[in-house]
Specification:
7 helices, mainly alpha
Length: 187
């Protein structure tokens, strides 16, 4: 129920502030727990990408064109869903992504546990299966990093990588490999 409420709040605030959707490019449809809300989020992002106006009526039309309205979720329920914004889309997007990350971590742990519990699983199969399971988690974790990093500090370079990048001490020095000195003096 809490996840559904967070997704509703994201849809409402993103409809009210569509210009802020460009700040949450790290959020994907697969992060949603309610499939119809994921489809509505896709409608929103598609409207923004096309440069179309975003308002509840335009979004309703887009949802209707995609066949998202049905008995139990008609125009009245849709308009009620998107007409009570509160907060910022970035906040609700982070909440949704955090829940998706935790859910995926639990799923990966269960897959690895199943591999280790099966006596027929070889060490190679365990290593390969674990790497595959962790690869998807790594992708979501990278998106989480983008979502929670400070955009002013340069979200493109993680802090651990930034400390390994050498600084340029002399910008006028010629580019290329450094001059080599012999390991032993010649005889």
């Amino acid at each position: 129920m809490e996840a559904e409420d967070e997704e509703q709040m994201l849809l409402a605030t993103a409809t009210a502030h569509p210009e802020r959707l460009s700040r949450i490019r790290w959020l994907h449809e697969g992060d949603f727990t309610v499939p119809s809300y994921a489809a509505l989020f896709a409608c929103l992002t598609q409207l923004v990408r096309r440069g179309a106006p975003v308002d509840p009526i335009t979004l309703l039309w887009e949802a209707q064109q995609r066949g998202l309205l049905h008995k139990g979720f008609g125009p009245a329920e849709f308009l009620d869903l998107v007409s009570h914004p509160a907060g910022a889309p970035e906040y609700w997007g982070q909440k949704i992504l955090q829940r998706a990350l935790l859910s995926q971590a639990a799923s990966v742990a269960a897959r690895i546990e199943a591999l280790t519990a099966d006596p027929a699983t070889s060490v190679h199969q365990l290593a390969t299966g674990s790497r595959r399971a962790l690869a998807a988690l790594s992708s979501t974790r990278a998106r989480w990093y983008l979502a929670t990093s400070d955009p002013v500090e340069g979200a493109l370079v993680p802090q651990s990588t930034a400390s390994r990048i050498p600084s340029v001490r002399n910008p006028t020095a010629p580019a290329g490999p450094a001059a080599r000195t012999p390991a032993r003096p010649g005889r």
